């Protein structure tokens, strides 16, 4: 039986388990398993887990990170979509009595209900080596649902980590940067090369922690309108903000109305959306509703 923490995060042991269970990696599930102990330590440390914490792990794979989470946290709930991995997890996690494995798609899981059922009175953190095909929808769901969680510490594609942390003026700045900065403070804990995974992904990765803010970063009277304006701005990134707003199907402002609100902000009507801060998008939304 493989149940020691140091056993799993190793190419040889991972290969042995894969072979024993005749497991085939599913590209469609973004399966790249972590095989580097140093990187695993970095994710676990970045997550700042305390003994009394509850942890949700998205996509435990064969349980490499789950073992380490079980050692640190009060309780771990690991949500895995691939049912072929469930018998493997039953073996690799058999030494722990503080873990629950849920065979489900995280995008179809009621996480608010899961938190109140599984972690009453506990501080909850999300930790994951995320499947790259679905990173942004998972992160946006976690943020927009306003779940009672302290932080989200995740391994993502390097470019996505950079986009989450970018500010105006950077080529990586976009709707994701603004959404993340509205809900959370970011910290990039590590850059991770492809050889730390089995199989190797084509791209580099990064570990980022999003610490959820108690209050949103800015006050805005119509949050949905602010995010629609952000979507409009980056949907047509090379156009002026005035045209991007007037052309966006999800909004019904004329070019004149958009230009007037932008001028009220003290900005030129030829400015592009990529130059605006979150605070300016919030003010723009307020001017358009007042
Ligand atoms: N945590 C493991 C590790 O670090 O070695 C595996 C990480 S692997 C990048 C992503 C994992 O997420 C895989 O186990 C995959 O099957 C699982 N997964 C993919 N899509 C999922 C979804 N929608 N819901 C839950 N798990 C998912």
Number of strands: 9
Strand order of the largest sheet: 4-3-2-5-6-9-7
CATH fold title of the largest domain:
Rossmann fold
Which runs of at least 5 residues are low in confidence (pLDDT < 50)? none
Q: Total number of helical segments?
A: 13
Oligomer state equals single chain
Q: What fraction of the residues are assigned to beta strands by DSSP?
A: 15-25%
Please identify which CATH superfamily of the largest domain we are dealing with: Vaccinia Virus protein VP39
Q: What small molecules are bound in this structure?
A: S-adenosylmethionine
Rg of Cα set? 21 Å
Major β-sheet profile:
7 strands, mixed
Structural class: alpha/beta
For the terminal residues, how far apart are their CA atoms? Answer: 65 Å
Average pLDDT level: 95
N-to-C order of helices and strands: HHEHEHEHEHEHEHHEEEHHHH
Helix content: 40-55%
Give the name of the CATH architecture of the largest domain: 3-Layer(aba) Sandwich
């Amino acid at each position: 039986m493989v149940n020691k923490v140091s056993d799993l995060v190793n190419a040889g042991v991972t290969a042995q388990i894969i072979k024993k269970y005749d497991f085939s990696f599913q590209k469609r599930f973004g399966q790249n398993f972590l095989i580097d102990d140093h990187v695993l330590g970095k994710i676990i440390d970045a997550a700042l887990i305390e003994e009394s914490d509850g942890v949700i792990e998205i996509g435990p794979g064969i349980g490499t990170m789950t073992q380490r989470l079980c050692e640190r946290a009060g309780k771990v709930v690991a949500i895995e979509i691939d049912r072929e991995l469930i018998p493997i997890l039953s073996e690799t996690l058999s030494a722990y009595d503080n873990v629950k494995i849920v065979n489900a798609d995280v995008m179809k899981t009621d996480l608010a209900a899961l938190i109140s059922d599984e972690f009453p009175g506990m501080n909850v953190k999300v930790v994951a080596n995320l499947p790259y095909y679905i990173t942004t929808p998972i992160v946006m769901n976690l943020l927009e649902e306003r779940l009672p969680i302290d932080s989200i510490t995740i391994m993502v594609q390097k470019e996505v980590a950079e986009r989450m942390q970018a500010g105006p003026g950077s080529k990586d700045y976009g709707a994701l940067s603004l959404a993340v900065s509205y809900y959370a403070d970011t910290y990039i804990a590590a850059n991770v090369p492809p050889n730390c995974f089995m199989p190797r992904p084509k791209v580099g990765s990064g570990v980022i922690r999003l610490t959820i803010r108690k209050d949103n970063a800015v006050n805005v009277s119509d949050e949905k309108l602010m995010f629609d304006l952000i979507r409009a701005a980056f949907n047509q990134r090379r156009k002026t903000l005035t045209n991007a707003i007037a052309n966006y199907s999800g909004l019904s402002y004329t070019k004149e109305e958009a230009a007037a609100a932008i001028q009220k902000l003290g900005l030129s009507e030829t400015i592009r959306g990529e130059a605006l801060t979150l605070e300016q998008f919030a003010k723009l939304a307020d001017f358009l509703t007042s």
